[in-house]
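Example record

One chain of 289 residues, shown exactly as stored in the release files.
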Amino acid sequence: MNFLTYFKEKAKKFERIIGIGLSNDIEITENIIQIAKKIVKSTKNEVLLVGDHSTIDVIKKKKQKLNKNIKFIASSEPANFLAHQLFQEHSLDAIIRGGLSSSEFIKKIKNFGKYEKINRLALLETNTGKQFFFAGVGIDEINNFEQKFELMQNSIVFLNKIGITPKIGILSGGRNSDLGRDSWIDENIKSSIRLEEKLIELYPNITIKHYQILIEAAISDNVNLILAPEGIAGNLIYRTLVHLGGGRSYGAIYLKSYNNNKIIIDCSRIAPKFEIEGAFYFALGVQSE
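Predicted structure tokens for this chain:
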């Protein structure tokens, strides 16, 4: 299934306000502005471009002709502004990290959302055009069984909410036949087997399979939700696919906030245009009607 197309069609139904952070790198900010123009032209939504005062000053000097549904906001703390407007003022329907620092953005999300941990679900695409949701893109997100179990439960809730039937592939640090080669690998494989068994017990109507280390088999089987073996491996899978393997990323949704009706989309602060555009459609496509 092409999830991005699904989100694009849904985005046309809404009139929402989306906030996105701008980078001090003017080239990246120009990319964000170009995509924002495209979004408001093809939908009825409004975009707030939030950056620090120096960034906004540079952009305003260029005197770009903008759609009335695009507005610039100057703030000494753009990440704080976006989180405050989403969580406390309720003036934004979704926020996108855009060009802001990941550590600063996550810190504000945790503070305003009162989350001890965050978990994100990325929308990725292989170089052959197969799209899937990928869980475990953060280096510190799924480093024990409890975190994996919580992430999968949140992911299942998310997919059900947006009308997609999950088909789940669980990855681990080796094949089952590799048990005994290394104590860490043993624990990782056993944890994934245990997770498979527990999820099958809880969700008997969902297809769930432990693919061991064979991510290519999960893709071949058209799995739409893949769980990484652990956070570092997940981050490397994402980077290898997107930056070396000709694949694409369309952003990652913060699941805990989504399940609390707060839509937050992450993307790389050096994201290419297709990732920025994907993040916008991701944010709009998961809105409640």
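Notes: The chain has a mean pLDDT of 93.
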